[in-house]
Amino acid sequence: MKQRIRACLALLLAAGMLCSRQVYASSIQNQIDNTGEKIHGLEDALDQTDKNISIWKIQQQALEQEIAFGQDQVSRLSADLDQTKADMKGTKQKIAKTKKELESSIADSRLQYEQMKQRICLMYENSTTNILMYVLDSESFSEALRRVEYFQAVMAYDRQKLDEYKATTKKIKKEQASLEEEQARLKSLEAKQTEQLAQIDTAVAGMKERLEEKIVKLQASQALKEQYEQELERQKQYEQELERQKAEEDQKREEEIRRQEAELKRLREAEQAQRRREEEERNRQQQAAEQSSRQQDSGQQSGGSGSGSSDSTGGGSAPASAGDLELLSTIIYCEAGNQPYEGQLAVGSVILNRVASSSFPNSISGVIYQSGQFSPVASGRFAHALAAGMGSRCRAAAQAVLNGSRNVDCLYFRVDNGVIDGTVIGNHVFY
């Protein structure tokens, strides 16, 4: 009896230690799940930041092109305005020159007119008769003709000069009017070009301000991206460390489970042996008592009777229900849907190995929903996949495992990161 009590106490102590390890492992798994959520959040934030940076870079390039185009317009308009101002200056100079020419022409015309009047006075001051006598007093006919031709030449010269001065004055006045019109046009053009230049300058200044804002946002986003990347790397390293700790705890827990199972088996065998001995002793005592009683009753009767008992246990696994098949195929899909068939089979084997182990729940649903064991269950992805019927993609592997096809005898598996020793299948290590 004392031996049984000691064995029970040892088993209870070991079970308490095992429960403590399981609680600690569950706590680490919760930390892993929380860290995974942080990593997903950081990855989403980093992805959004990358999109913002891409958009702002495009906007920056567009603004830079618009600014370059605007500056080119400013350059061309400035050159046009400078040319207009130069044309105006040249036109003013031409107008001033034309005015001088007009004044000179008018002065020449007046001088010629005065000279013509003096000649006329000189020729006609003695009246027409005297002029005629002047011609007739010529000593010869040729001299008379020469004097007549002289008077005609003088008169023709005066008439020609008068006509020339009139034409020159008209031409100069016309040219002056044209230059004044050109000057007015250039003034209007200058005002228009000045206004356009001011508008473009204002637009370019506004675009430069927007460009500076985009550059500030871009720099801030790039700095934020670096912070996200650093924090993401830190969280990933922390996740790897938690994975390592979880793997160590899983290995220790598995060793403890196997040790307890071996101890339990040994204790059961010892208890069965003790029960057999006690049963044999009771049978022997009973036979001896019966024999003694018969001897007392008959004195001469001899014989014996025997009785035996047998304790046999047997059983087999009942066929899995449709619900178990659906649960098993869905958890295989969540954990190894992107893995080869052997990897899917191995995940299913771990589930069934746990069902068979005394240290885990004795049903597929109990193993899957055990707290802190499977990340897809904790995150809600398992429930979503189950509702959507996604487990059908891995039903063949689940059915094969339920039919007895197990390719590993392990109780745990993790993503293979090179830290855990075990059987590597696909991206997982089983231990």
Q: What does this protein structure show overall?
A:
It contains nine helices and three strands, in the order H-H-H-H-H-H-H-H-H-E-E-E. A hairpin with a 2-residue loop joins strand 2 (423-425) and strand 3. Helix 4 packs across helix 9. The radius of gyration is 61 Å and the shape is rod-shaped. Residues 300-318 have low confidence and may be disordered. It has a three-stranded antiparallel β-sheet, with helices on one face. 81% of the residues lie in helices and 2% in strands. It is mainly α and 431 residues long. The protein has helices at residues 2-124, 127-136, 141-298, 322-336, 341-356, 364-368, 375-379, 381-388, 395-402; strands spanning 413-415, 423-425, 428-430.
Which descriptors apply to this entry?
431 residues; mainly alpha; three-stranded antiparallel β-sheet
Question: What structural category arises from helix and sheet content?
Answer: mainly alpha
Strand arrangement across the biggest beta sheet: 1-3-2
Multimeric status of the protein: single chain
Can you tell me the overall shape? rod-shaped
What is shown here, in short?
81% of the residues lie in helices and 2% in strands.
Question: What is the element layout, followed by pairings?
Answer:
Layout (H helix, E strand, L loop, with lengths): L1 H123 L2 H10 L4 H158 L23 H15 L4 H16 L7 H5 L6 H5 L1 H8 L6 H8 L10 E3 L7 E3 L2 E3 L1
Antiparallel strand pairs: 1-3, 2-3
